[in-house]
Specification:
Blueprint: H1 2-26, E1 34-48, E2 54-59, E3 66-67, E4 72-76, H2 79-104, H3 108-138, H4 146-175, H5 179-204, E5 207-209, E6 214-219, E7 226-227, E8 234-249, H6 250-253, E9 260-265, E10 274-287, E11 301-309, E12 321-331
Antiparallel strand pairs: 1-8, 1-12, 2-4, 2-7, 3-6, 4-5, 6-8, 8-11, 9-10, 9-12, 10-11
Helix pairs in contact: 2-5, 3-4
Length: 349
C-alpha cells in the first residue's frame, strides 16, 4: 500500500515538472522559419562630469527626469572663468595693436624728424670743419696754442660721427620695421588668441549639457559641492539606442545576419510586440552567460547578438528579460543598418 502511494506521488511530481517545462518552453510552437532567442534589454550608461574644478552653482535636473540631447543640466560658478576671458582678451587687443603698428611702418613725423636731425648734424660738422681750418692756419704764426688745434680736430671728428649716426637713423626710419619683428609679433598674437580661445572654452565648459536623450539615474553632487573632472555629477541612462542583448548558438549562427527583422516581447507587457532588427553579431564565441535562459545546454558556446528595438512609449527598461523572435530569411526593409532616427547602430563594442 505504501509502495503504491509513493509511486503515485513520484508520478505526480514527474508530471508536474514535465507540465511546467512544457508550459515554459513548449506552450508556443516555434515555426521552422523562426528563431527564438532570450536575453535582456540593454542601454548605454554615461557618467557626466565637469571638465574643470569649481563650485556647483545650479543643478537643473534630478533623478528620474527625462532629458534630451543638448539640454542644460548643471552650471558652475563662472566668475573665475569670466575674469580669465577678460584678461586674455586684453592681451590679445594689446598685441594686435603692436602688430598693426609694426605693419604700418615709420610715421611721417618720425621721418621728418630724422631728416631734420641729419640737417642739424651736417650744419654742426660744417661749423666744426671751418673752425678747425681757421685754427690750423694760425698755427704757423704761433697765434694760437697747439691745444686749440687738437680741440678743433676732436670737435670736427665728433660732429662727423654724429652726422653718420643721424643718417643711419634716417635710413632705419625709411626702411621701417624688420620683417622678422613683424613675424614675431604675429606669432605672439596667435599665442594670445589661442589662450583667449582656451579661456572661452573653459567658460563654456562651466555648463554641463546632455550628450543624448536619456534618463537621470543618479544625482551624485548637489549645489555648493566642489566639482572635479574625476567626480561625476550625474549618471545618465541613454535611451537611444536601445537593444536586447541575446545569444545565439553556433548551429543557428549561420541562419542570421545583420539587418534581419525581429520581434521583441517581454513578460511585463504580454501580447505586445516591439519591432526590431539585428544590428550586431559578435565575431567571437563565449560560454553561455548564467542569466540567459534558453532550453539549450549552458556549456555550449554562443555568440552575442544585439537586436535594436523601437521603444517609442519608453516601456522597455534596462535589464528587463526579453524574448526575440527572428523571421529567418527576411531582412529589414531598406538597408542592413538602421538609421539613427530608429535608435539603431550597426556595431558596438
Amino acid at each position: 500500500m505504501k509502495k503504491g502511494l509513493v509511486f503515485v506521488v513520484v508520478l505526480a511530481a514527474v508530471l508536474a515538472i514535465g507540465g511546467a517545462w512544457v508550459w515554459k518552453y513548449g506552450r508556443t510552437a516555434v515555426p521552422a522559419d523562426e528563431l527564438v532567442l532570450y536575453g535582456n534589454v540593454d542601454i548605454r550608461q554615461v557618467e557626466l562630469a565637469f571638465n574643470d574644478s569649481e563650485r556647483i552653482a545650479d543643478l537643473l535636473v534630478k533623478e528620474g527626469d527625462r532629458i534630451r540631447k543638448g539640454q542644460l543640466l548643471a552650471e558652475l560658478e563662472t566668475e573665475r572663468f569670466e575674469l580669465a576671458v577678460a584678461r586674455e582678451k586684453a592681451l590679445v587687443d594689446t598685441q594686435r595693436q603692436k602688430v598693426a603698428r609694426l605693419e604700418a611702418g615709420t610715421r611721417p613725423e618720425e621721418i621728418r624728424k630724422a631728416r631734420a636731425d641729419v640737417a642739424a648734424a651736417e650744419a654742426a660738422l660744417d661749423d666744426a670743419e671751418r673752425t678747425y681750418r681757421r685754427i690750423k692756419s694760425l698755427i704757423p704764426q704761433h697765434a694760437v696754442a697747439v691745444q686749440n688745434l687738437d680741440d678743433a680736430r676732436a670737435a670736427e671728428n665728433s660732429a662727423r660721427a654724429r652726422l653718420n649716426a643721424t643718417r643711419a637713423l634716417l635710413d632705419l626710419a625709411l626702411a621701417g620695421p624688420r620683417k622678422e619683428d613683424i613675424a614675431a609679433a604675429k606669432a605672439l598674437l596667435k599665442r594670445d588668441e589661442a589662450q583667449l580661445a582656451l579661456a572661452r572654452r573653459d567658460l563654456k565648459n562651466a555648463r554641463l549639457y546632455a550628450p543624448g536623450a536619456g534618463v537621470i539615474q543618479d544625482r551624485v553632487l548637489e549645489v555648493g559641492d566642489m566639482a572635479f573632472p574625476q567626480k561625476p555629477v550625474f549618471t545618465v541612462a541613454l535611451t537611444d539606442p536601445l537593444w536586447v542583448r541575446a545569444y545565439v548558438s553556433e548551429p543557428n549562427l549561420g541562419k542570421i545576419r545583420p539587418g534581419m527583422q525581429a520581434q521583441v516581447t517581454t513578460d511585463s507587457f504580454p501580447g505586445k510586440r516591439y519591432a526590431g532588427w539585428i544590428g550586431f553579431i559578435s565575431p567571437t564565441a563565449e560560454f553561455t552567460p548564467k542569466p540567459v535562459e534558453t532550453p539549450e545546454l549552458r556549456t555550449r558556446l554562443v555568440y552575442q547578438v544585439r537586436v535594436f528595438v523601437k521603444n517609442p512609449a519608453g516601456e522597455l527598461r534596462l535589464g528587463m528579460p526579453a524574448t526575440v523572435r527572428i523571421q529567418l530569411g527576411r531582412r529589414r526593409p531598406g538597408k542592413d543598418r538602421s538609421p539613427t532616427s530608429d535608435s539603431g547602430e550597426s556595431a558596438a563594442s
